[in-house]
Amino acid sequence: MALRPVFQACKDVDDFERSKSLAKCFMSYLDSYLAFILKDPDSGFGNMSSLELLVDCINHGSIKIGEMTFDIWDNLAELLERIPQPEMLEPFRSIFRRLMLGMWKLCQYDKDTQLDVIVNEDHNNDFVRFRTVSVYELLHDVMWIYGELETFQEMFQILLRSDNTWTESESALYIMHIVADELRESQSELIGQLVRTLLSLQDNCHPLVKRSAIKVLHHLSDWINSHQETIDPVIRFMITSLRNDRIKSAAASGIQSICFSCQKKIHISHFEGLFQVLQSAEELGLSNESVIVILKALGCIISHQPADKYESLMSNVVALQVKPLHEILVTQNTVVAGTGSKTDPCIWLDRLSSIFRTSVATFPNIHPAASIVKELWPLFAQVLEKYQQESRITERACRALRFMLRCVQNSVPEVLPPLITIVRQPLVVVVYIISTLLLFRC
Description:
69% of the residues lie in helices and 0% in strands. It has helices at 4-12, 16-39, 52-58, 63-67, 70-81, 90-106, 115-120, 126-142, 148-159, 166-179, 188-199, 207-219, 221-226, 231-241, 248-261, 268-279, 281-284, 288-302, 307-331, 345-358, 370-386, 391-407, 416-422, 427-439. Helix 18 packs parallel to helix 20, helix 20 runs parallel beside helix 22 (391-407) and helix 21 packs antiparallel against helix 22.
């Protein structure tokens, strides 16, 4: 403990190497005496004040020195988990509260960091990796000691402060999204206040604050499902966010999460909004990954529609993917140029896989998508014939076929005749198709 003032002095003069060396000494000491601290926290080698060394390192301001403490926090949490009497945890709660506040400070972005690095969450960047991997895993594992609810409340109070910088607000939201999954329905009033606060964010607020707000809403999807009045404003908030280049990927993932959690309560009007986004995907500059997420959300909505609406909605979505694929087949030779570009058949085949995979529904009579699948057979036969030497494409086509057949499981006999031409193709095609037919005992 006598070295604490020395550590503080090194911090004050920005002597990083000496601070790092002292931090290593502190961690070695604590690693050896953690068991004593738990056994007899008020005296001798187990003196609770030894844990101040952990807090000192967290508050140093360097993510490298802060991260040196993470194994000790983890070990301490594991030892506390074995304590039979819950009341014995009480002396340690304040220490873990200070860890949480220290993480809030360490997770704040430097205002001078290049925005592209932050937006793309490049894991080659040390700070991005520190936040998205190290901090996430640590807080997820240890914050039960202080309490997920208490953490959430404290971060919410920080968020509500009127004098926050955008980095402080964003960091509070980031910590909240880590613990949001652990909140219970009994905290409904608090969650409701937060949701209203997030939905009231102005269009001109910093894009990264809005991105972290979307991540919090993403993790509150079960609560949103239980409070139907929030579904519409949340989805509209996320659809609007799709138009912001810096947060559109997070918005797409958030939409998928809400649609999957609230699928039985999603209104048809939400389909129209998402379909407009799909139609404008190129204009909005959405990545293929984001488009696939939107397709999955649309498929989820379609799967809960009656037969007549199912067929018309499905037909509209599928048509948007089929037209470019048909144009490629007509204009392109057998050599595929630009893997991952709009001229790559795999882009459109993957999108068809996504929509058929998530729009599975059972109908008493012929499946409403049977006619759509029958119309697609000649197109797929053409793909398999034209690109039979391109295993990457034929496998994607087989995958799409598999999900198409699974989708219309009750109506597979309707498309059996064209299957004769398919089974003449390479073995991988036959395996995909036959495995699906066997699955549904057709």
